[in-house]
Structure prediction request, 268 residues.
Amino acid sequence: IDAKQAQRRFPQFRFGDAEAVLDDHTAGVIAAERTIAGLRTLLPEMGVSVVENNRVLAIDPVADPVVVDTDQGRFEAGRVVVTAGPWAGRLIPGLAGRLQAIRQTVTYWTLDGTKDGLGLGRFPVWVYLGVGRNDTYYGLPSFGEPGIKAARFVHDGVVDDPDRLDVAVAAADVERVRRLLGEQLRPKIGDLIKTETCYFTNTETEDYILDEAVSGGRVVVGAGLSGHGFKLAPLSGRILAGLATTGETGVAAFDGNRARFRVGYGGT
Prediction:
């Protein structure tokens, strides 16, 4: 639709520099934290033990049983699934050169005079596509937080250390988001409620890694999809469980193109 149509449908936005606007009705919002909490309550009934706040230091992928060293002791297991996000390259050496962890600064804001109009159904999920790969911004309505969510999607940047936050860089990202919101939104930007940091961890080709850590080993890994993977959790979980148990996933689209998801894949 053109900018004038968009202004009528979404009066919160100016669309002053928009060449066109795509109004997509197929998207959704997932309550990730609530989903995890709900699943967590089911685990004891399934006989699953959960060990939390336990830092994994090293994994031996060829030992039998597999050895997992942590800061609270050693574990042994017949099979291990590693989904360690930006830390996966440290635990699985074969991934070290393939994964790039790029820090994302997420912000939450109030908007003056619009306290009751920020929720689902009133305020849109939006994406702003500017010029260049790092000129992409996105946001969500108030959903589990008192204000709207907004962030810049950093595709290319310095590969970050997930154990170290560069405060100056994070502050600069906040100001970029504040400026973009000021340009694009009609309501005046209010207070910055809070910021969060996450790490989008991708391969160079942005293909996911769902594979054995080493050929014939007892460790499988899911990596290269941090920041995008939660919405795919039922499918990727099924694939990883199959790889860890029988070696077969039952997912035809994956099995027919398994090479693309290998640890050592480097294609396009």
